[in-house]
Amino acid sequence: MKKLLFPLFVLIGFQSLAQQHLLVDTHNDVLSSQLLTKADLGKLQRSGNFDLVRAAKGGLNAQVFSIWCDESLGKGKAFSRANREIDSLDALIRRNPKKIVLVNNAAELKQAYKQHRLAALIGVEGGHMIENRMDYLDSLAKRGMRYLTLTWNNSTPWATSARDETSAKLKRKGLTGFGKQIVHRLNTLGVIVDISHVGEATFYDVLASTTKPVIASHSCAYSLNPHRRNLKDKQLKALAKNGGVAFVNFYSGFVDPSYDAKEQLFLKKHARELNALNKIYGPYAPMKLNELHKAEADKMRPPLSMLIKHIDHMVKVMGPEHVGIGSDFDGSESYPTGLDSVVDYPKIVAELRKLGYKEEAIGLIFGGNFLRVLAANTGK
After folding, report:
1. Are 54 and 343 in contact (CB under 8 A)?
2. pLDDT digits (tens, 9 = 90+) for 8-21
3. What sign does the dihedral 365-366-368-373 (CA atoms) show?
4. Which CATH class is domain 2-7+22-258+303-378?
């Protein structure tokens, strides 16, 4: 491990990881929800999980902002939505240039860290947002896309998703020839391939095709919760062999195997209200429902210890060099008790220390591993 840590100290440029960890979160959906809320993320917000005020308080140094829409926005709409969300990020940066800056590689992230500005990066969640066009992929890369999640829950014509591989009758699974071309193009452009949301067949096709380390930007451990979105131990080991990193998701449904059943009862109980909210908030209706019935929703949340078990299990399977943090804040309706916003990352550090984690390992998990993969893909 010491051979891996020395370059990390040099790259970050700080005296000691024990004094201050580089903290990177690889997945936050606030930009897609902001199109609805119109929130000024430069100011403290009463709802949601992210704003620049709370990010600074929580010690967040770099945030990958997810660019997302669901499959209802197809050809002629998804790419446009992606650009609207990137425009929102650009506007936030223009309003707060001393607090946040867009970065495209590890060197720029290091510089932002030294300047005490939040390093903003862009991750596009869902290959459908390129609308099967390589020029759209190139365009998003030019705008700052640093990873592409090959599928969301919906498959594309060139890659199958975890949802569809497990619940649909497919004529084929995995990457098509065009899908492999996309992986190669991402490698060439220095854009990280993200395999969260993809099915197992696509997962292994990606590892057989890529020339660069890949990531799972927001996934948990299947052995602790057998959800289709989580990664099996065999997959975790294969990802580690690739040099990649799995970033642990905070969503209660991926952390706690009992959550889905409790949530379904909750949604059924409030079905009429949920239907009304759907007309206003669309995919964000469950989040609004939880806000309206906070006390009831809080009882469904798993304890923080369950999330820590996912992190610890993945470290034991992969090694601390291959695990990170990908919260999925502002993209889900529920998180473990105590994780209410970006203010709360230090609670995870405290729990890992209780388990005996050394500062070097915590430094890798909270930012060093992402920095390494980013540099390996961008060359800087």
Report:
1. yes
2. 433 443 333 334 68
3. positive
4. alpha beta
